[in-house]
Design a protein that fits this description.
The protein has 302 residues and is α+β, with helices and mostly antiparallel strands. It contains eight helices and 17 strands. The two termini are 15 Å apart.
Length: 302
């Protein structure tokens, strides 16, 4: 059986903070999976125009049901930490300081949990978008997780490491491509790539979930009879992705493939009642998929 508990981790906004200084809160969830634990840590949040979610004419009505009526959305960013007693694994590394001022808070969250960068044994990427990859290097362009083996799906790696991608990708993502190439070039001597269906670590299986990016991967983490799916951005929010999974998402590079991937994952997770962790889902991102008529809804774990 899987048990979860929600915690709030707090630390001062600056070193030496006193009770008079503001505190930044990190919402985290912890899931016990057999003898292992999964923690979700906040990297902050993004601020995006509504069109980045979808430009479907029915979107406003659906979003209003979730209390979202303005011109932008502010999705949270949940980095997953997996510890099994041998391996200490980060799934994605957040945005770092160069993407958005509201993101890049992972190291403060790790500090609050008492985990240092040197303790991370593996960094596993779902994909190479800025809010998942750009936190991998320090200000000297050295890998922050110096003792870690870095891992990425081969199709994803091949797409972003190709310099030609900067010339062929759409205009709005050219900075994504340039930023990915710079960071990934610094990781070439420590990267391991893998394919769909491979067990990349004991109890961690890679699951192709392409569409959001050409090689996006989800990961099924299993301990005995207990399992959880880390879905990255294959299910990108708790509103339109569940209520209308086949509507095109502006954040997906291949909108049609992304929609089919999303629907397939939702059906699988609903049928199996397998817990999931979504990078941009609320309350730390841990929850379950429930059917809601012909659609779905996200039920958070508490």
């Amino acid at each position: 059986m899987i048990f979860t508990r929600r915690t709030i981790l707090r630390m001062g906004a600056a070193a030496g903070a006193t009770a008079l200084l503001p505190l930044r809160s990190f919402a985290a969830q912890t899931m016990t999976l057999g003898s292992a634990t999964l923690d979700t840590l906040s990297d902050g949040n993004l601020v995006l125009p509504m069109g980045f979610v979808t430009d479907h004419p029915g979107a406003a009505e659906v979003m209003a049901r979730y209390g979202i009526t303005g011109p932008q959305v502010e999705p949270p960013c949940n980095v997953t930490l997996y510890r099994d007693g041998t391996n200490t694994v980060l799934f994605d590394v957040g945005a770092g300081p160069d993407f958005m001022p509201t993101a890049g808070k992972l190291h403060e969250a790790l500090d609050a949990l008492g985990v240092s960068a040197d303790e991370i044994t593996h960094v596993v990427f779902t994909h190479a978008h800025p809010d998942h990859l750009w936190g991998v290097l320090d200000e000297f362009d050295e890998p922050i997780f110096a003792n870690a083996q870095h891992m990425m799906g081969k199709a994803e790696w091949d797409f972003w490491i190709d310099p030609e991608t900067q010339n062929t990708i759409d205009e709005g993502r050219k900075t994504f491509a340039a930023g990915a190439l710079r960071r990934m070039s610094m990781l070439e001597d420590r990267i391991v790539t893998f394919g769909d269906g491979e067990e990349i670590l004991p109890g961690v299986g890679a699951r192709a979930s392409h569409g959001h990016t050409p090689g996006h991967m989800a990961f099924e983490v299993r301990q005995g009879n207990s399992a959880c799916m880390v879905v990255g951005d294959a299910i990108g929010n708790n509103h339109l992705a569940f209520a209308e999974p086949l509507w095109a998402s502006g954040s997906d590079q291949d909108a049609e493939m992304g929609a089919q991937t999303r629907l397939g994952l939702l059906n699988q997770l609903a049928d199996a009642q397998m817990p999931m962790i979504g990078y941009h889902l609320p309350e730390g991102g841990i929850g379950r998929v429930e059917r809601d008529g012909a659609a779905f809804r996200f039920a958070t774990e508490v």
